[in-house]
Amino acid sequence: MRKVVLSILVDNTFGVLSRVAGLFSRRGYNIDSLTVGVTENPEYSRMTVVVNGDEQILDQIKKQLEKLEDVKEIRVLLPEESVARELVLVKVAADPADRQGIISIADIFRAKIVDVAPDSLMIELTGTEAKIAAFIKLLDGYCIKEIARTGITGLSRGAGDIGEYIDD
After folding, report:
1. Which of 146, 123, 145 is nearest to 135 (CA)?
2. Pick from 34, 52, 66, 115: most CB atoms within 10 A?
3. Cα(135)–Cα(150) distance, integer angstroms
4. How does pLDDT run along the chain (168 residues), one tens digit per residue?
């Protein structure tokens, strides 16, 4: 089993997310992460989908996605040829005795304190899955009240772009 990050350019139309997600659920494939947003061209959206599977399953997923009318292009984002990031918000209980320790951990990871309350801190961190996992692990000694993660989003490195063939 291996993890693959797919960057999928789709028409920015009503129901496209449902159609793509439905393809996965109908075939019993699990989506580890899914992010969607409009691109520089408002006619198209970019979906970043993270899936796990053996080569046969991954190949089948790509073939099934290519059959969807809304899908314009699919690119596998290889780690060495792309930049992939995730955003996490973490709310941590923080009494005065714990506050400085939590802030120190946030500083090490170049995270931002985005909310301060009398009994908690909210921290924002953007990075790779490994960076976020390490950050959360260091916070284990504190009381984590809530975590919200966006899922992975990414782009290929270099000047080329997905969808170059589409006429604007």
Report:
1. 123
2. 34
3. 16
4. 889 999 999 999 999 999 999 998 888 888 999 999 999 999 999 999 999 988 999 999 999 999 999 999 999 999 999 999 999 999 999 999 999 999 999 999 999 999 999 999 999 999 999 999 999 999 999 999 999 999 999 999 987 666 554 544
Q: How far apart are CA 85 and CA 96, in angstroms?
A: 32
pTM confidence score: 0.84
Q: Which class for 151: exposed (0-12), middle (13-18), buried (19 or more C-beta within 10 A)?
A: middle
Q: Give the start-end residues of each E strand in the chain.
A: 2-11, 31-38, 44-53, 71-76, 82-93, 112-117, 120-127, 144-149, 153-156
Give 20's DSSP letter. H
**Residue 13 backbone class (left: φ over 0; alpha: ψ -120 to 50; beta: rest):** beta
The three-state secondary structure class of 160 is coil
Nearest-angstrom CA–CA distance, 93 and 132: 18
